[in-house]
Amino acid sequence: MYFGQRLTRREDDKFLKGRGRFVDDIEPAGTAHIAFVRSPHAHARIRGIDAAPARALPGVLRVLTAADWQAAGLGALTCVHPMPFSDGRPMNEELRPALASGKVHHVGDVVAAVVAEDRYAALDGADAVAVDYEALPAVTDIARSLDEDAPVLHQRFGSNLVFEIERGDRAATAAVFDAAHHVVALTLDTHRVAGCPLEPRAYLSRFDEATEDITLWATSQTPHYLRRWLAKYALGVPEHKLRVISPDVGGGFGLKTHFAVEVSTVVWASILLGRPVKWTSTRAEALMSDAQARDHHTRARMAFDRDGRILALEVDTIAALGAYLSNFAPSIPGNSYPQTVTGLYTTPNLHLRVRGAYTNTVPIDAYRGSGRPEATFVNERLLENGARELGIDVAEIRRRNLIPAEAFPYTTPVGRAYDCGDPPALFDKLLEIAGYEGLRAEQRRLGDRGVRMGIGIACFLDKSGTGSSRNLASRGGLHGGYESAIVRIHSDGRATVFVGSHSHGQGHDTTFCQIAADRLGLPIEDIALVEGDTGSIPFGNGTWGSRSLSVGGVAIMQAADRVIDKARRLAAHMLECAEEDLLYENAVFSVRGTDRLLGFADVADAAYHGAVLPADGSMEPGLEETVFYEPPDTNDPQAMHLAVVLVEPRSGKVTVRDYFTADDCGNIVNPLIVEGQVVGGLAQGLGQALMERVVYDGGAAGQLFSGTLMDYALPRASDMPGVRMTFQETPAPSNPLGVKGGSETGTIGAPAAIGNAVVDALWDLGVRHVRQPFTPDAVWHSLEDAAG
Amino acid sequence: MMRVTLDINGREHAAEVDPRMLLVEFVRRCAGLTGTHVGCDTSQCGACTVHLDGIAVKSCTVFAAQAEGHAVTTIEGVSPDDGLSPLQAAFKEHHALQCGFCTPGMIMSALDMIRRGAATDEQAVRAGLEGNLCRCTGYQNIVAAILAGAAAMAEG
């Protein structure tokens, strides 16, 4: 049994020896390179583009603009998860243009593309394209985006509003607030961050003039989506002539899911030129073009009874969507956020309003956590402030509000049913590994010596394995929630597994083969995994929303089971016995009560030879099965964090000294990999909490300040505390593996837990809130404000 | 254009290059050694770390032409033909990599740290990794792997 084993990863050796194969590592002879001309303005009218100086440069092959795109009759990039207004009106949809026409709407908007013999010539060409801009006033601050006097990005909508939704019951919630014993109200913004996988995005497209086949190597978490979107929406190429290969990919975290603005132009240029064309993003381009995340302005209130029980939650959020709508963007504040905002508590009343809005910023889309970090920050910050104001310990108030195990499946005020779990038991595990009482005693001791230690907690849930397709469609989705897999047994009895998921750090080559090996009864060494190639995999909804294992993993399991079913039928025929009399163990079929044996490899050999199959034609030759697995529902991983911080009030510096996590992500296939996902996610959550922030100037110019990794601070080894983890395994009822997503809880909980810890450390100085990220500047200002 | 000849992993590589070509680009495009990666434009990430005369440098901060006359060692040059080096084996054992993109730079930096005797304890290793970014692992397992790798190399 491989399930549950801490196997080291099969994919590691190639990476450790520098033998990974990433998109930028591939360069066929004759490859031309693209450089993009990008807007230096946040908002401007394009009065003219003069490409002649670029065309005159040596090595420049082609300059492409929106006029060329339109002349070629090409389509638009797409948004596959629209979010209508609550009253049914469609959202105000402005899609991201491959090449901006008429106006630019954010710094980094693509205005032209220069194709040249090599990268240097392309960059020189891009520098030589003269664009005449008429700068317009910009709005980059989400809190100001819907003001009467805010500059409007897309005039045809009359304002920057994309959609407005309400969830819960406004009147009932208002009545509860009016009568409540205690109410906490806070402004709880979650700032804008950039996903920053270490490998920048890259695309290489090769057009074969003889066959008219296009092969695209892409840094994609969803190669089948990319093929469909290019074919259906942008370029109109036949889907069967376009093969998308996503080889080794250096991290994704969501943003390599999206229909990026540059990829269509790369493919189009390769068709126009009849030669391979490549673009590899620089980091500076990534920070002005990769979809960004979060960026909520929220005012929220929580009502309590005298015992600290939550009576109601009221949330009013403006969610930035950027200058245009990226693929999944509206669904994040529209679905993920409301569905998780009451977290793991028995909050009976909710009223939530979300308004999506355009700003002159890079488009927003899914990034690890996606809607849940914003929701958790609101819920958890209000709860801890409430506890302190009521004089109830923050652990005790959670015990009074956590959903008990027997209440599952538990339906929230937004109508979402959480599948299973035991939050009170998980909470006990967290407090136990953290030594909560001891930490409080230490806090008092240190406090006596003038050292400000803070303890913060967050309890929350994730939303993983997004499905079914029907459920997705009911919430506006125009894409599927299923996954496909092929298990192919070769004539020597070894296997190749093909699946529509994509691993870019998650270790599928190990985890998925652990599952396949168990189901096939083969040693894991006899199984190979293929992902990321539309040429060999039936279809894939890809890897996002922690769906790979609970959807793709189950597809593999079911295909393997069907293979064994057929092998058993064939073995029974060959051994001239009834199927029920066969035992299958360690790749050998044996007839119960006899010494007659038949190896799995012999059955496979016979299946491919074909001659020994039943003469009545009741069995086809070959040994391979395809499954399209549709999950019945989403699953609900749960987690709890406890952060211990030290705060220096004079400088405002926050140090996270210790961090404890308790996760319930269902059954665990490989603990080594799951632990890695927890700590890795946590580093990104800690980054958001303490240092990462996309900064625009906030004024009418709308300039981007965080344009390189010198300005956009990613956490380094010395920023991370040691992390202690514990797990509880409540099997998910919605899939036969009993698994749930396990990789997003780190980003979801850390801003809330660390924020609560910072406020805990400074509460007696009058600090009630610190804005994110909790930089020395933010903490210092909170202290100044508290001192009045 | 100018002709640049470099000693990379003990082998001579010559090419006509643009004078602005960086060492990392020469390594990747002219020598075809794609284990060395580019993760930023501003020498923050360390994915391009190689050894120049045995010292770790970020190959995006060196022009290819400047490396003439020096011995360049890349991840391919410190990897045994069969199996893994003790440090690489420690990375695997401790699950110190996920996407694998930063990994060659981490190995090259860690080797330098270990050879300098600077990988003494957790705090020293965390400080020693100041020039290398990893976006996947949260560093915990990388730190453990480097300490284990240092111990294995000391026993060597």
The H-and-E topology of chain B, N to C, reads as EEHEEEHHHH
The helical percent of chain B reads 25-40%
CATH homologous superfamily grouping of the largest domain in chain B:
Beta-grasp domain
- Uncertain residue segments of chain B: none
User: What is the annotated CATH architecture of the largest domain in chain B?
Assistant: Roll
Average pLDDT confidence of chain B is 97
Strand order of the largest sheet of chain A: 3-5-1-13-10-11-12
Please report the total strand number of chain B as a whole number. Answer: 5
**Distance from first to last alpha carbon of chain A:** 64 Å
Oligomer: heterodimer
Structural class of chain A: alpha+beta
* DSSP, total strands of chain A: 29
Assign the CATH superfamily of the largest domain in chain A: Aldehyde oxidase/xanthine dehydrogenase, molybdopterin binding domain
Q: Identify the most extensive interface between protein chains.
A: A-B, 57 and 54 residues
Layout: helices, strands, pairs:
The complex is a heterodimer of chains A (788) and B (156).
Chain A: H1 12-16, E1 32-38, E2 44-50, H2 52-55, E3 60-65, H3 66-71, E4 103-104, E5 110-116, H4 119-128, E6 130-135, E7 161-168, H5 170-179, E8 182-187, E9 190-194, E10 202-208, E11 213-218, H6 223-234, E12 242-245, H7 263-273, E13 277-280, H8 283-289, E14 292-304, E15 310-322, H9 331-340, E16 349-358, H10 372-390, H11 394-401, E17 410-411, E18 417-418, H12 423-434, H13 436-448, E19 452-461, H14 469-474, E20 483-489, E21 495-499, H15 508-520, E22 527-530, H16 548-575, E23 582-585, E24 588-591, E25 597-599, H17 600-609, E26 624-629, E27 638-648, E28 653-664, H18 671-690, E29 722-727, H19 745-762, H20 776-787
Parallel strand pairs in A: 1-13, 11-12, 15-16, 21-22, 28-29
Antiparallel strand pairs in A: 1-5, 2-4, 2-6, 3-5, 7-16, 8-14, 9-14, 10-11, 10-13, 14-15, 17-18, 19-27, 20-21, 20-26, 23-24, 24-25, 27-28
Helix pairs in contact in A: 9-10, 10-19, 12-13, 15-16, 16-17, 18-19
Chain B: E1 2-8, E2 11-17, H1 23-30, E3 49-52, E4 55-58, E5 71-73, H2 86-93, H3 103-115, H4 122-128, H5 140-155
Parallel strand pairs in B: 1-5
Antiparallel strand pairs in B: 1-2, 3-4, 3-5
